[in-house]
Design a protein that fits this description.
Layout: H1 2-15, H2 18-30
Length: 47
Amino acid sequence: MQNLKKFDHVINEFWSDPEHFVSFMNANLFGGSRLIKKEDLVIQSKT
């Protein structure tokens, strides 16, 4: 169980960086073309 908590923390920290999210989405949705920019993102609260 402790390993899962550590994994969650690492993954959440990774995805909290807008550059990581934008890079992943551009690579997977647009074949690497940079159509989404981090300035285009809107941060939503978790609640």
